[in-house]
Design goal:
heterodimer, A: 174 residues, mainly alpha, two-stranded parallel sheet, two-stranded antiparallel sheet, 7 helices, 4 strands, globular, B: 307 residues, alpha/beta, 8-stranded mixed β-sheet, 11 helices
Amino acid sequence: MRINVLNRLIHFALWLMALQFNLRPSLRKTLKSSDGWTNFTSLIRRLAYQPFTPGATPHPSASNNFLDNMRDAVRLNPRNVDNNIAFNVKLVPSAHDTRDKTVETMYSFVKSYFEQGGMQMQFNMVNSRVLRDAMANPENYRNLLVRISGYNAYFVHLNREMQLELIERTEYGL
Amino acid sequence: MIKQPLILEVKGNSLDDGPGIRSVVFIKGCPLSCSWCHNPESKKAIVEISFESKTCIGCNTCIETCTTDALSRENPFYIDRTVCDLCFECLETCPSGALEQVGKEMSISDLVEKVIRDKPFFDTSKGGVTFSGGEPTIKMEFLAEAAKALKEQGVHVLIETCGQFNYEIFNELVYPHVDLIYYDIKIMDGDDHKKYCGTSNQTILENFKKLHTQYLDGGVEVLPRIPLIPDITDTEKNLTGIVSFYKENKVEKTQLMAYHPLWQEKNLKIGVNSPSNDEGEMGEWLAIEKVKECEKIFSDAGILIEK
């Protein structure tokens, strides 16, 4: 019973906030920039009844540039995050990359992140399993940038044949 | 007042447009018009409208909004660009974002503000900002001012160019603010170049010679890159011609970019009928054996292939 009341209260509060957002264009502008806290509340583009993203993982619609998400994550004050910060970073090693390049990229992400005040991060290496999931659920992978020999593309913008081809290439290291 | 080019996109977190983690500024407009262009939306220097049918939810609000009757589901490109007056009213009403404006103006201060946020990543990865497109040198003053503003902030600046520009102006305005140049060498034969790229390659080759000589004298590094396009640039005749050109100019390393067909969808979005859509080799990735063959031509001549 208590949970129901709490639920409704939260629902009302969120509705009020959404109303504010819609009525005040200046607020919309602030929240839209990646400097706002939109990334973690994802009020704007999360559809009703969809779960929030876990931990401090940015919602895919927050920004199509992962560096923006990293920058937002470092600004969290760990004193205010009781249950620890769990921040996921997707790294897309291209089959054409040498191991050195993949390691150097990881090093750059990690060093910059901690230098700017970040506290915790974990890497998701993009492999064919992730790509298959992206085919099935493109709305969760809007910022997934795939790399093929000198070219970047947003995976969810490619047509089906290209996506399948890419998956095959990733699996066989082509 | 500096003449502003249109900016297509500023893409961050790019690992493929130069060393380290980079932000790439795509400038709209190009003096060339290569038949294989992987960014067909960047060829013309004017504002355009694009439609992505995958994103469209079929609400038809745009059709109702359009004052010139330019939109129709019968049309494979959806937009009749001969009647569209680019008022962009349909964009305002589109709930899914299937209709997009291609090419927006951006002031230099806005541009710098946008890319400078990623500076900590540039610093640790020895990355920076890359100017590409299209052709970034179409508005030389803008490029010069932008590069200068970035250099003042300590950012590494890389320019990807086709080489078709006025050398004196480039040398005077842009050259002092650039750290690295990626230069495209496409086709050696003048007639073929005119046929496939739309202009002669004389200026391009001359500019390269001058820039590379400056590099050998201690100037900015120039890396020549070759796009390997099936039956157009990957022929033995073209590549051996390029090898001779390299030898004449004491070029020691190059980069080869293998063709891939992912760009052809963009033609549909921008309303262009591709002459070689999905036909034969242009619809396929360049075979690995072919890439290796091409690499061999260069390594046999003692030229290093940079990955």
